[in-house]
Each structure stands twice: as structure tokens, then as C-alpha cells.
Amino acid sequence: MESSVSAESQSTPIQHHSRSYQTYPGAQYILPSDEDERARLELQHRVLQRAIGPRLVIPTLSLQPGDQVLDCGTGSGVWLMDLSKQVTSDVSLFGIDIEPRLFPMSTAQIVFSVGSATELPAHWSNKFRLVNQRLLIAALSVKEWPRVLQEIHRTLVPGGWVQLLEAKRWGAENGDLSTKHRQMLEKLFASRNLLIDCSVQLPRLLDDAGFKNIHVEERKLPAGSWAGPEGEETRDNFIGVFRGMKTPVLNAGGLGYVQSEQEYDEWMNGLAREWDAIEGTTVDICICYAQKSM
Ligand SMILES: C[S@@+](CC[C@H](N)C(=O)[O-])C[C@H]1O[C@@H](n2cnc3c(N)ncnc32)[C@H](O)[C@@H]1O
């Protein structure tokens, strides 16, 4: 485990109603894993796929009988379950996550297992034709990102592809609450050595891990009621992410931004209203995909 002086070890925690969080040894992941989070992950999948289009597999790649696919940090397995409807039953699907609470039942085609992306099973070398990894921004530290990409590289077959989706920027450009919120998130992420600007660093990290054929795509997702019902869904999903970070923030004594649970909740409500009010508010995502050499 990396040595970090956690803000939580320095401040007096603020009492609040806590949700359920993962307890995997050494993991810094700051979002909950409960039924509300499962519902949010389903919503998030819809919001993201609407932005990307119908493509679940981003690189130009047609999965063949016998191919194997891994979803790293699979959560509720929503991406894999969707993929299973688009491929024949002789394509094998695997999901791995540090927290099994949201796993669906494994089936003959889809196998879920507990483990960290930082140390994939040794017997998975040269196995997968495609590895998908989506939204581990709030999970992986500065030191873990290179390690995870090396692990993905190891587990791909020669010529196989990795596809990564990460959040890049979010909130109202000139909104006071959004600005204050970005500053608080930077402090929270820094206290755990999490890489808040991972999306910017991914092309270089992929190159360092030995990947070729590196592609980057970006999408801006309109967020807030000014953008209609779809903007409201995007808002609800991402403000839902920030609501889920309440316990890490309050356990760290509020990080100098809030002094009570009520203040935190009201801040998130205000943030949502600010996104509604400021036309042009977006959440920007980055999609990177790259290939292991033949
Ligand atoms: C924001 S959720 C995204 C879930 C899924 N990828 C999706 O897009 O629906 C992040 C997931 O990464 C998992 N996670 C966090 N750290 C991890 C690690 N070191 N290895 C594997 N999974 C991890 C969390 O438990 C959580 O399920």
C-alpha cells in the first residue's frame, strides 16, 4: 500500500448516516456499494451509452467464437450484461471487482470474480481479446494507474484491445458552487493520492505500458434541466456520484468545506440547482482505446 498522510487521520470525523463502502485491503475507492449505487450505475450506463451511441465495443473489432472479454472494475456488471446480448454464447465474458456486493449471478457465459485491477490473476496472461475499464477515477492512485495498465497489457492477447472511459471535467464553468466543489474534490483526491486528471494522462500512461495505436475521443454531456430530461438524468447521475462521496468527506472532518451532514446535503442540492440554471453546463468524458502489439 502507498504511504499517504490521509486527511481522515488528521481531522475529527463529522457524525452522519453512512452508506456501505468496500473494505478491500489497501483500496482507496471512495464510492459506496449499496442498492442506491446499483441503481445509479444502471442510470450511468444509460447516460454514457447515449453519449457514445450504440457502440459497447469502441475499437473496430468483431468478437469471434472463442474470444474472451474482461470488464475491470465491473461494479454491477451492467456493461457486460449488455454486451452478452450482442455477442454469441461462445464468447466468454469475465468481470472483476474488489467488491462483489453488486455482482449479478455468474452464468455459463459470464463469470464474476473478486480481485484488484492492480493484480489480475497470474493465469490470465495473453487471454483477452478486449479489456474494458470504465470510471476508476475515484479508485486508482498515481502509482496504481501504471500498474493497472501493465496488468491489462499482460492479460491481452497479442493484437487485443483495451478501452477506457473516464470523466474529464464537470460542472458549471462560472458557478460559485461548482468552483468550490472542484476545489474540494481536488483536496479529497489528493488526500488519497487519487489521480483526478487521469483522463489527461491516459495516452501517455498507455504508451508507457507498451500500447500502440492509441486513440482518444471526447464527449461533452449536457447536464442540468436547461438540457431537458436527458440533461436531468446526466445531472442526477453525476451529482449522485458526489452525494456518494459524503462519507469520505465527512470522515475527513469536512476538509475545511462543510461542518455538518446537513451542510453537505444542502451543498449538493445547490450544486444541482446551479447546473440547472447555468446553460452550457456539461460533464466531459474521455474515451481512450489502444492495442497490444501483434
Ligand atoms: C464507478 S464504479 C464503475 C463500475 C463499472 N465499471 C461501470 O461503469 O458501471 C467503479 C468500480 O470500480 C471498482 N474498483 C475500485 N477499485 C478497484 C480495483 N483496484 N480493482 C478492481 N475494481 C475496483 C469499485 O468497486 C466499483 O465497482
From TrEMBL:
GO terms for biological process: methylation. Gene3D superfamilies: Vaccinia Virus protein VP39. InterPro entries: Methyltransf_25, SAM-dependent_MTases_sf. SUPFAM superfamilies: S-adenosyl-L-methionine-dependent methyltransferases. Residues 69-160 form the Methyltransferase domain. Keywords: Methyltransferase, Transferase. The keyword Cell inner membrane does not apply. It comes from the Eukaryota. Transmembrane segments: none annotated. GO terms for molecular function: methyltransferase activity. It holds the Pfam family Methyltransf_25. This is S-adenosyl-L-methionine-dependent methyltransferase. It comes from Heliocybe sulcata.
